[in-house]
Amino acid sequence: MLFVCSIIGYKGKSLAAPVLIDSLKRMEYRGYDSVGIATITDGKILVRKGVGKVAEVNKSLELVRMPGLVGIGHTRWATHGGVTGNNAHPHSACTKDIAVVHNGIIENYDALKEELILLGHRFKSQTDSEVIAHLLEAHYSRERNIKQAMIETCNRLKGTYAFVAVFEEGAISGARFDEPLIIGIMDNGYFISSDILGFLKYTDKAIFLDNKDIAIINAGKLELFDFEGLSVKRPTTQVAWELGAAEKGAYAHHTLKEIHEQVRTVIEGISSDNKEKIGTFCNFLTNAKSIYITGSGTSYHSALILKHIFGKFAKIRSETIMSSEFQYIALDSIDETSVLIAISQSGETADVLQSVKAAKQKGAKILSVVNVPTSSLARISDSFLNVNCGPEIGVAATKSFTGQLSVLYNLTDRLCNGCVGIAANKNELMTALNLILAAENNIANMVDIMDDIKDIYILGRSLHYPIALEGALKIKELAYIHAEGIAAGELKHGPLALIDKNTMVVVINPLDATFNDTISSAHEIKARGAIVIGISDKENDLYDHFIKLPKIKETLFPLIEVIPLQTVAYYLALKKNADPDYPRNLAKSVTVK
Ligand code: AGP
Fold first, then answer.
1. DSSP letter (8 states) at residue 529
2. Is the whole model's pTM more than 0.70, yes or no?
3. Residue where a domain terminates, one of 239, 268, 295
4. Alpha carbon of 33 to ligand 1 centroid (Å)
């Protein structure tokens, strides 16, 4: 189940509602089918919530006008309980002296709900989250002790969660178990949020709560303790990202902006401050008896490329397993002589974290490649490399993919004394990235004249095969068109039966060792009447449309050839009137299984 929400709490010197709305807008990319806010005014909790995007709900319910200096807010993206106003958060308890926002899943909510109903609690929604409000109320009503109520509540909940509650007396309290929760510290107040983007405009000082941490913000101070009630200390971190990087600027969509940022982010991936850590990676890798690589979605495609370049250039054998399959395939053979490389943009993907935790328990060393250095994955790894491409807002990964590749190529380059040639060809790579991005208008025109397409196949051999998979994923996500990446050599083993004049086939075919074999595949396709789009540095009469790749050292083609595929997906989305930044049914980071 997909269920990714944003939560935010604020207690400070400004009116809470405008701050909360602003923060929710910045986190909207995580989930966005309903919105709600609770604030405290004159010792009473006021809740307003509704279905729609933040701007829509704000307009209809005037959220921004809600009074009070303390409040919590939530954007919801849910299947659990349907998209209705009642199911939107915050959820209040019966006496209305507590309201709660929640991200995650309460697995034992049925049993808890039954128990609470027997005690006289009345439920207003179909969500699992509402049980948290009633449980808190049941414990809080006894002695009106927030700390005790939070501890007792957390110890009854099963599942994964981060929740924030606001109490009538003016306090905010949050707890986390396997979902992120971060405190933002200002000179005159606090935030508590599921995402640093929720408060980065106001402060760059953050405390990342650990699992089983509870925070209470009351009377101008912050108290941290664990589920046993023992006081805990967590370091304050200075968060580095510029909030400006999360704005769209002159671009129509974040996705288009992020596609264009790749000139900078790919190059920064090579030059970034990973130098020392790459040394640590090399030590772990050269001493390992077995090496596994894992990731989900786009990050899995990066993992496939890493396996390939490790084998081809660094002569290192490794096994790539997608994170959702990891526990079934790899766990029996992993031990303390193993290294697991986990790749993740967010560092919060549940499937990835579960694989890593299981491997760690068996003694494996964990190396990760993340774009969020403060993420859960980075923090449980023995060492991590930072992709450092800035916040990626578009739900579909673009710059984080090429950023990951850049870091992974650089690592492999170090392991084989420069034989991949990414560092040595930095300038050529930058020129090639600029040239391929300049093809945007041609690609837009090409998409514009395409008839209604139902099926797209993308062919690639060797290193180009994971790029074919990634291109197909982009088209599925952004344009809702059936698309498949196929290893070109496999065509004759089955997929050829699907090819006819109604299909469109993209052939990734730069002039390298795969060129001649892929041209043969293109002939087979053309003979069956399909429309063929060639992506290559060498033109061929076979192609109905041609996207020219700039000349570059051939090992580096994957870093540039994916960009026209991202661009095709973006323009296909526009053609279908789909919002490329927020594809339907998807959320940016999938923090539950
Ligand atoms: C890619 O476009 C996706 N939206 C998705 O497949 C994503 O790559 C996957 O969920 C993994 O996310 P992560 O890199 O943050 O772990």
1. T
2. yes
3. 239
4. 20
Query: Residue 444 belongs to what H/E stretch?
Result: helix 440-448
In a domain? residue 102: yes
Indicate if 235 and 253 belong to the same structural domain. Answer: no
Per the document, the length of the chain is: 593
| DSSP symbol at 497 | G
**What spacing in Å lies between the alpha carbon of 463 and ligand 1's midpoint?**
20
5 is known as an active-site residue: yes
Task: Mark whether 169 and 270 lie in a shared domain.
Answer: no
Q: What is the C-alpha separation between 368 and 226, in angstroms, rounded?
A: 27
Asked if 457 and 499 touch (Cβ cutoff 8 Å), the reply is: yes
Residue 455 shares a structural domain with residue 543:
yes
- Please work out, in degrees rounded to the nearest 5, the angle formed at the alpha carbon of residue 340 by the alpha carbons of 336 and 342: 150
Examine the domain organization and report whether 233 and 274 are in the same domain: no
Rounded to 10 deg, the angle between the 399-415 and 557-575 helix axes is 170
Pair 309, 452 in one domain: no
Question: Can you tell me whether residue 221 is helix, strand or coil?
Answer: strand
Which pLDDT score, from 0 to 100, does residue 242 have? Answer: 52
pLDDT of amino acid 238:
76
Q: Report DSSP state, residue 496.
A: G
Residue 1 lies in a domain: no
- Ligand 1 centroid distance, CA of 434 (Å): 25
Q: Are strands 189-193 and 6-11 parallel, antiparallel or unpaired?
A: antiparallel
| 208/291 same-domain check | no
> Residue 120: pLDDT band by 50, 70, 90 thresholds?
very high
For residue 348, with 0-12 CB atoms within 10 Å meaning exposed, 13-18 middle and 19 or more buried, which class applies? buried
Domain range for 324: 249-424
Does residue 492 fall inside a structural domain? yes
Is residue 108 within 8 Å of 78, Cβ to Cβ?
no
Task: Specify if 15 maps to a domain.
Answer: yes
Ligand 1 contacts CB of residue 503 (under 6 A)? no
**CA-to-CA distance for 419 and 430, rounded, in angstroms?**
19
Cβ–Cβ < 8 Å for 194, 201: no
The per-residue pLDDT for range 429-480, each reduced to its tens digit, is 999 999 999 999 999 999 988 878 889 999 999 999 999 999 999 999 999 9
Name the domain boundary from 181, 205, 239: 239
Q: Are residues 28 and 141 in the same domain?
A: yes
Three-class SS of residue 538?
Answer: coil
| Ligand 1 contacts CB of residue 589 (under 6 A) | yes
Whether residue 569 is found in the same domain as residue 457: yes
pLDDT in tens, 153-212: 999 999 989 999 999 999 999 999 988 899 999 999 999 999 888 998 899 899 989 999
Phi, psi of 175 (to 5 degrees): -145, 150
